[in-house]
Design brief:
about 400 residues, alpha/beta, Aspartate Aminotransferase, domain 1, Aspartate Aminotransferase, domain 2, 7-stranded mixed sheet, 4-stranded antiparallel sheet, 13 strands, about 40% helix, globular
């Protein structure tokens, strides 16, 4: 069956390093190694019980067993608009500036289908979530990485960014703050400059803001790009319920922003999928209407976990970017090994699974990511395993 071949666009995608990590894990398990994984950004805690009850109630109603409107229900979109106004002081037209999604990953993947023509260039962050790059490639575009280096706090150098805009005239620039994997955040001045540059070079701004509610300091909340004057003319933002409410498996999110960008994304979606499950949307409305009560205990949980992991890394002498948001910690490889070699040795020798920075792009080499999505005792265990690995290198 040699004539059965994957498409060239799939074959040309960069190697998926996480499949290699999975193979190493499987081999370690066969040898009886007890694995502890800090590699997955999937909360270990359940969805708040009150949200689950709302889902159960909604699911029991037969009227919710039919197709959802492609764009999401009016009730859901209005709830999003209300929450967005309360949280970011941004007024959205629920009819034209909000779109329900089956997870923000889906929206990010479909966006270039709506706006990128073959050969168009698009800028994405490196290190960054792998879908940023692959979505551009699968749509026939040319992904151009924007380096996020330690010397600039893992945010772009604006002079370098402008040079890339001048050189490539990209269709869009994708940003992700708070960042996965680095946890870096940006201030209002930086976002204001981005909007200025995007307008100057006629570039769409795409913001993945899935971690906006995973902050540690109430006085230091992450911003929305849509807060910036002029952003509604050229920007779209993706928001998710997954991390804010421990709802990763529910597959519910939304896009907000410029009406033309929302309309284009909706047109792409109507030819590919359907709207989110009606009962999930109804439960999500409850989540938004009670966001502070439901999400603050989740943030407090991660504040305690952050304290455990940073104190442990400090004792081991491992350098890291102190996270102001997300439930990730971005640390420097403390040996002369590559990030992949280091991650492989941790699995093979100590059963500790971390994510090598190279999996997030070239600029991620030399670092590794830890996810705080395990209990406190497991984080303490992870620090002990790291310590043993450093002693036996």
């Amino acid at each position: 069956m040699n004539w059965i071949q994957q498409s060239k666009r799939l074959q040309e995608l960069p190697p998926y390093i996480f499949s290699e990590i999975n193979a190493i894990k499987a081999d370690a398990q066969k040898r009886g190694v007890s694995l502890l994984s800090l590699a997955i950004g999937d909360p270990d805690q359940p969805t708040p019980e009150l949200i689950v009850r709302k889902l159960q109630e909604a699911t029991s109603r037969p009227e919710n067993h039919v197709y959802s409107p492609y764009e999401g229900t009016q009730e859901f979109k209005r709830a999003v608009a209300r929450w967005f106004h309360e949280r970011f002081n941004v007024k959205l037209n629920a009819d034209t500036e909000v779109l329900a999604l089956i997870g923000s990953k889906e929206g990010i993947a479909h966006f270039p289908i709506a706006f990128v023509n073959p050969g168009d260039k698009c800028l994405y962050p490196s290190p960054g979530y792998p879908i940023f790059q692959t979505a551009i490639s699968l749509a026939g575009g040319i992904p151009i990485p924007v380096p996020h280096r330690e010397t600039h706090g893992f945010i772009p150098n604006l002079d370098e960014l402008e040079s890339l805009l001048v050189l490539h005239r990209p269709k869009y620039l994708l940003i992700n703050f708070p960042s996965n994997p680095t946890s870096a955040v940006v201030n209002r001045e930086f976002l204001t400059e981005l909007v200025f540059l995007a307008r100057k070079y006629e570039t769409i701004l795409v913001s993945d803001n899935a971690y906006s509610e995973m902050y540690y300091d109430e006085r230091d909340k992450p911003l929305s790009i849509l807060e910036i004057p002029g952003a509604m003319d050229l920007a779209i933002e993706f928001q998710s319920f997954s991390k804010t409410f421990n709802m990763t498996g529910w597959r519910i999110a939304y896009a907000a922003g410029n009406a033309k960008l929302i309309a284009g994304l909706l047109r792409a979606k109507t030819n590919i999928d359907s709207g989110p499950l009606l009962s999930v949307q109804q439960a999500s409305i409850y989540a938004l209407e009670n966001a502070l009560t439901l999400s603050e205990p989740i943030r407090e949980l991660y504040r305690k976990r952050k304290t455990i992991i940073v104190e442990g890394l400090d004792k081991l002498g491992i350098q890291y970017l102190d996270p102001r948001a997300t439930f990730f910690l971005w640390a420097k490889v403390p040996t002369k090994e590559s990030s992949m070699e280091f991650a492989k040795r941790l699995i093979e020798k100590e059963g500790l699974v971390v994510t090598p920075g190279i999996g997030f792009g070239k600029e991620g080499e030399g670092y590794f990511r830890l996810a705080l999505t395990v209990p406190n005792a497991s984080l303490e265990d992870a620090i002990q395993r790291l310590g043993r690995a450093l002693k036996t290198q």
